[in-house]
Inverse folding.
C-alpha cells in the first residue's frame, strides 16, 4: 500500500460528494487500522406498511396487549421479530 494522502478541506457537501465520486478512500484512509464500532442508541429506520388482518385477530391481539401492558401494534412487531429471528 502506498502513502496515505491528506484529505482536502471541503467547502460544501456537493464538493465532498464529487471528490469521493472520483477518488478511492483507500488512498486517504488506512483501513487496516479501522475498528468496528456499534451505535446502541441508534434508532432503526421505520417504514409504515398496511396489512389487512381479520377483525377477530385484531381483537385478540388487543386483549393480549392489554394483558401484557403493551400496545397491540407493538405486540405485533414483537411477534414478527421473534418469528423472523427464529427463521434466520
Amino acid at each position: 500500500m502506498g502513502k496515505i494522502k491528506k484529505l482536502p478541506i471541503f467547502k460544501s457537501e456537493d464538493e465532498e460528494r464529487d471528490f469521493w465520486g472520483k477518488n478511492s478512500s483507500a488512498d486517504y484512509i488506512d483501513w487496516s487500522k479501522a475498528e468496528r464500532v456499534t451505535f446502541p442508541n441508534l434508532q432503526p429506520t421505520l417504514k409504515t406498511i398496511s396489512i389487512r388482518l381479520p377483525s377477530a385477530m385484531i381483537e385478540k391481539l388487543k386483549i393480549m396487549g392489554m394483558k401484557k401492558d403493551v400496545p397491540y401494534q407493538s405486540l405485533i412487531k414483537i411477534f414478527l421479530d421473534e418469528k423472523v429471528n427464529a427463521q434466520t
Notes: The mean pLDDT is 93. Residues 40-88 form one domain. The longest helix spans residues 72-87. Residues 66 and 72 are 8 Å apart (CA to CA).
